[in-house]
Amino acid sequence: MLRKLSYNFSIGLEALIQNRLRAFLTSLGIIFGVASVIAMLAIGRGAEQEILTKMETLGANNLIIQPIVEQEEGDTEEEDDAGKEKAERFTPGLTLQDAYSLGRLPYIKAISPEIEVESIAIRAGRKRSVKLVGINNTYFSNGTFQLAQGATFSEEHQEFARPVCIIGSSVRSRFFPTEEPIGKQIKCGKLWLTVIGVMQARNISRDIRDELGIRNYDLDIYIPIETMLLRFKNRALVTQSLIQQANMEDDDDDPEKPKPNYHQLDRMVLQVEDSRYMYSLAEISNRMLSRRHNQVVDFEIIVPELLLKQKQETTDMFNFVLFAIASIALIVGGIGIMNIMLASVLERIKEIGLRLSLGATQRDIILQFMSEAVAISISGGILGIVLGISLSAIIGQFTGIETIVSIQSIILSFFVAVSVGLIFGIYPAQKAAKQDPVISLRSN
After folding, report:
1. pLDDT of the chain along its 444 residues, tens only?
2. Which pTM was predicted?
3. What CA–CA distances, in Å, run from 418 to 300, 337, 390, 424?
4. How far, CA to CA in Å, does 409 sit from each of 234, 413, 414?
């Protein structure tokens, strides 16, 4: 059986070699179809990987609460003698007390408050602008941010607001290129900070940072949040300068003039135990903060999972359309194989009759023509794989779109190419096998 199969395959292959140009033109549909499938799947895989990277950056089960400096008043109209007018309500802004209150909610694993301040880092004649970020140790609990070396803040560091810091990987490269930073000091603003740890590099691309609206974490310097409030900045404190500034703003009532940032915190990240409770906790957090802020909407709650799911749905639909277009090319290639094979049957009617008259069975004829169709599909599939990988690299190089060619996509496209050859080669092979030997030998 194997010998007969190899013999029929060799006959089919010999026929293809004798008609090389026609075989190549026939396989063009398969070549471009396979290349399109591989390229489209590479683009889809790259988009999926980008979404996973964004989810890893933002945290899969996180709720992010950010302040809004420009207040949005709710239904705060009050009636007086002159009629109805909007009355501005006092709000303390986002504070540590808000964080402690939200931390008592069920299914909240941890809550990480953050305060960001622009600062200038100086050491050994080197100078650079950095973000000084006040945090607590829960910042490191979700696995998104991890230490490369050193230790996190101790209870003493936090309780007594010690001048210690954990630096980002780029800060280390800039200020400690040839020495170990642990135990050394770096100056931020007017305060010298002792380095106790170094963060792992995040290496987040600029495009992702711009799309998500996040900073370059590798240029951050982290300090205990108590150190930030006591030694650097606490916007919740009412000072003489703030009172004077408020009085000046009352005298100069310019609606386009930006309001000062009165929020003690710049961000809160709530780590939820289970994603099933994300939306319920977002709603509860919104109600709690609204009551604490006297119904003034000066904050926003971001659910990264929801944003990324919406993007995933859009990406999936886009990938489906691309795959459908690529599949059409394969179908067109299969139709081309069937048409050429039918033409080949008509051209070789005498050859078919001769083989049948010499003892070949219908099964032998079917195997011969099926072998030709499969050989065209296999050769077209191999060339299509090479073209698809090259096309994916070109797309990634010149468009900036991330493309990832996987082994699964290569196997799938090659399997589809062979299947197309088998499916569309069946009818011409059967038509050839059903020829009457006598009539075939008499044909011109």
Report:
1. 566 666 556 766 676 676 677 777 777 778 888 888 888 888 877 776 766 666 655 566 788 888 887 644 444 444 444 444 445 678 888 888 998 888 888 888 888 899 999 999 999 888 999 899 999 888 887 656 788 899 999 999 998 999 999 999 989 999 998 899 999 999 998 899 999 999 988 766 666 555 555 677 788 999 999 999 998 888 877 655 655 555 555 555 555 555 677 888 988 888 888 777 888 888 999 999 999 888 888 888 888 766 667 666 777 777 777 777 777 777 777 777 777 777 777 666 677 677 777 777 777 777 777 777 777 788 888 888 898 889 888 888 887 777 888 888 788 878 877 787 777 777 777 776 676 666 666 665
2. 0.61
3. 54, 12, 21, 10
4. 54, 6, 8
| Cα–Cα dist 263/364, whole Å | 83
Instruction: Please state the φ and ψ torsions of residue 162, each to the nearest 5 degrees.
Output: -70, 150
CA–CA distances in Å: residue 6 to residues 12, 296, 341, 413: 10, 81, 20, 25
* Cα distance between residue 428 and residue 306, in whole Å: 52
Contact, 93 vs 109, CB < 8 A?
Answer: no
Secondary structure (3-state) at 409: helix
